[in-house]
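Below is the data:
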Amino acid sequence: MKSRMPRLVETVRSGRILVSDGAWGTMLQQAGLDPGECPELWCIEHEDCVERIAREYVAAGADMLETNSFGGSRLKLEMFGLADRVAEINEAAARISRCAAGLDHWVLGSMGPTGKMLLMGDVSEQDLYDTFAEQAVALEKGGADALCLETLSDLDEARIAIQAARENTDCEIICTFTFERTVKGEFRSMMGVSPTQAVETLLGAGADVVGTNCGNGMAGMIEIIREMRRAAGDSVPLLVHANAGLPKNINGVDVFPETPEQTASFVPALIEAGSNLIGGCCGTTPAHIAAIHAAVARFSAGASSA
């Protein structure tokens, strides 16, 4: 069941700053997800746990909930022998987030990269299109309001994913790239794509919302969003899902060091740089989202009284 929420684009253009949820992988690992286990299968085998995580993000102040479906494409699920369960898993993922969200929060269907490279001949454009279309349809059927194509690095894969989602669903389309700073001090995706190039291609392909996720803490996202805003103009909503800082390897385990207060301290600068939708990625928890929510509320209150 889909909500009757207004369109995200319309809401953002009305002047509202929206808060998204935080990391799903981090929370699932804390709940007992083992290394090498399929996170998306938890939507079937541990539904109560997945819904609890979603409800914790709602309670923290998230306006939008993603779905536990990042690796839910056929090309990803086949690595776990689950290629024949794409529809079942993705519909369950969206249904769980919809139950937690109710009818007054947005549900974003999470769709990650396939891990296959067109450039290397790993997959055809038709295979990519069919894979993304299958997942998008299932997420919409389960109750997603929008589809969040995230952590992408390749323009061709992004273009095909947007086309598949656009042509097979009525959902709004969000697309985010992951960038890292190069030795020259510029931000580029793994495939060498700049934030400006990403914006131009994603909007040209039909994305409604563009942005960046993972790869950086909030501090690093400010410069990326500033560049994306220059390329996007004033009216395009920009989304950020930042990590809780850059990971540090402690005793063989990657630890994300930022406290909720440290993460939230960058929110005003991020909004001033041009972000309209702000949430978390790796290492962030409901506590981080609660701090982001409070920072957004303070910023909005100050802006309205100015």
Summary: Residues 18-305 form a domain with the TIM Barrel fold (CATH 3.20.20.330). The CA atoms of residues 91 and 141 lie 6 Å apart. The longest strand covers residues 209-217.
